[in-house]
From TrEMBL:
Protein name per its UniProtKB record: Uncharacterized protein
UniProt GO molecular function: S-adenosylmethionine-dependent methyltransferase activity
Species annotation: Petromyces alliaceus
InterPro entries: Methyltransf_16, SAM-dependent_MTases_sf
Gene Ontology cellular-component annotations: cytosol; protein-containing complex
Region (Disordered): 93-116
C-alpha cells in the first residue's frame, strides 16, 4: 500500500469536515485520467493489469473508451435503459482486441472465417438499491470461476456527475462502499505487511457543481465511511481547477468499515 500512501499525500488535502468545502465534465475527466502523468498511473494504482468499474456510465461510454486500451478490463454500469445507445457508441468507437492471425497461407483451401474481435469493455446493469456489487465480475465473458472467486474487487472505481439530487446520495455512497469492501481497507500504518495483498479500491468521484445543498449531503454521507481528498488544482490542471465549476475527489474506505 506504499504506492497508495504516496498517491494520497500528493493529490491534495484530505477533507475532514463537510463544512470545509464549498455532463460537460466527462470529456475533461477522461482526458485527465488518460494522461500517463496522472498520479494514478504515476504511483502504480492504475496499471495494464487493472480492473476498473464505472458507476452511472451513461450512453457515451467516453471514459470506458479512453481507459480500456490501457487496462485489463473495464466494467461500465448503469440502468438497463442506457444499454442500447451505449452499445451502439461502443461498437462505433471501441478499439478491439484482434484475434491472432496465422502466419501461413494455404492456396486452394477455403479461408477459415476469423473469430470476432473482442472488446475489454463490458456493460452490466447495477441498481444502487437492489443489486450486489460482488457479482459484477460475473459479467466478464471467458473469465474462469477461479479467477472471479479469487478477486471480485477493482483497482479503481470511477463516477462522473452521477449525483444531482439528494435521493441518490445514500444508495450511491452505499454502492461505492460495497464495491470497496471487495478489497482490503487502506491502512497506512500496515502498508509493509500488506504489500502482497490486493490493493484497496480507490474511488474517483467527479462532479459538476450545481446544488451546494446536494453536494454537502453527499460529502457528509461519504465522510461517514470514507476518507476523502479533494484533488488539488496543481494535480488537476486548468480545465478542472478551481473556477471551472467542477470538483474531483478521491475516496478510500475508512479503517473499520471493511
Amino acid at each position: 500500500m506504499e504506492e497508495l500512501t504516496t498517491f494520497l499525500t500528493s493529490i491534495g488535502e484530505e477533507v475532514e469536515d463537510a463544512e470545509e468545502v464549498l455532463w460537460k465534465i466527462t470529456p475533461l475527466l477522461a482526458e485527465w485520467l488518460s494522461k500517463k502523468t496522472n498520479p494514478l498511473w504515476h504511483h502504480g494504482l492504475l496499471t495494464p493489469s487493472s480492473p476498473v468499474v464505472e458507476l452511472g456510465c451513461g450512453i457515451s461510454g467516453l471514459i470506458a473508451l479512453t481507459l480500456s486500451p490501457s487496462i485489463t478490463h473495464y466494467i461500465a454500469t448503469d440502468q438497463e435503459y442506457v444499454h442500447r445507445l451505449l452499445r451502439q457508441n461502443l461498437a462505433a468507437n471501441v478499439r478491439t482486441t484482434p484475434t491472432p492471425k496465422s502466419s501461413k497461407s494455404t492456396r486452394g483451401k477455403q479461408k477459415i472465417p476469423k473469430a470476432p474481435s473482442r472488446s475489454n469493455i463490458t456493460f452490466t446493469t447495477l441498481d444502487w438499491e437492489t443489486d450486489a456489487p460482488e457479482a459484477l465480475k460475473d459479467c466478464i465473458e471467458g473469465e474462469g470461476n477461479g479467477a472471479r472467486d479469487e478477486d471480485r474487487g477493482f483497482d479503481v472505481l470511477i463516477s462522473c456527475d452521477c449525483i444531482y439530487n439528494e435521493a441518490l446520495v445514500g444508495p450511491f455512497v452505499r454502492t461505492c462502499r460495497d464495491v470497496c469492501r471487495l478489497r482490503p481497507v487502506y491502512c497506512a500504518e500496515r502498508e509493509g505487511e500488506a504489500r502482497e495483498r490486493r490493493r484497496p479500491t480507490v474511488c474517483i468521484i467527479a462532479q459538476q457543481q450545481r446544488s451546494p445543498e446536494v453536494f454537502e449531503v453527499w460529502l457528509r454521507e461519504a465522510l461517514r465511511v470514507f476518507r476523502v481528498w479533494r484533488v488539488s488544482d496543481e494535480v488537476l490542471g486548468g480545465k478542472l481547477a478551481a473556477g471551472s465549476g467542477y470538483l474531483v475527489h478521491v475516496l478510500v474506505l475508512r479503517k473499520g468499515d471493511s
